[in-house]
Amino acid sequence: MHLSDKEASNLALALRQCISLVELDLLIMYAKINKKSQNEIVQALQNCKKMQTLRIKFELQGSKFKSDNSDEQMIALGKNIRKFKNLQNLLIWHDIIIGTEVSISLINGISECTNLSSLNLSLIFENQLNENDATFSQFGKLKNLKILKLLIVLNHENGRKGFPLIHQYLDQINLLEQIDFCFRATIGYEYLLNFGTSLGKCSNLKYITLILFSVNNVGYQGLKAFAYELAQIQHLFVLNISMGRIELQIPLKKDFIRKNKRLIKLNISLI
Length: 271
Fold this sequence. Notes:
The chain has helices spanning about 5-15, 35-45, 70-80, 100-110, 190-200, 220-230, and strands at about 25-30, 55-60, 90-100, 120-125, 145-155, 180-185, 205-215, 240-245, 265-270. The protein is α/β, with parallel strands linked by helices. InterPro entries: LRR_dom_sf. This is Kinase domain protein.
């Protein structure tokens, strides 16, 4: 249902009164309601402190763009979410390009939800990531997280390189059982191997899906080393890997199997 600006404002007013709300699905269409109404809805969430499940999508029809108003909304959302101490399931899909400071503010807010069990996050970054990037530095606080789904897009056309350093913090999430990771940018050998090494330390992982759209300068031996790291995960049941822009032989399936004797499904493909 598409709301008018007045209806969206009324919704925001109603949300402010819903102090006992525990579950909410919310779709905000940027082309359908004005900025004031969008901001009112995001701000209204601050009173829903008993929230256990929140699914919120910010959708854009047409080309992606950066918006200062969107940045303000994401910062406000991060501040509100950190108050949800009972939050267990969170989905945020965001179609607008955001800067590094905004993403840090949002993710730091999410990281305060230490009871979070499932996180599904889609973000479009304005700039490329580098070794000093601190966007995911607080993720290790999510000690109860079992399911992590990430779609990360780098919008910078001339430098779509770098890799989110989330892999440095994954092994701190002791209960992590499932990770779905989709990365729309270019990564190289070092980043790929480091990511594999970090996943190999996540001893409770059972399900892994990796979609890497552009893998450059890795080589067969690099892919084999990546496979070796994933083969260290003893409790792994399902492993799905799709990689793009690779013009070479991919490792044999046996290279992905070593200590993970429980593996029941393995799919390695090129896209």
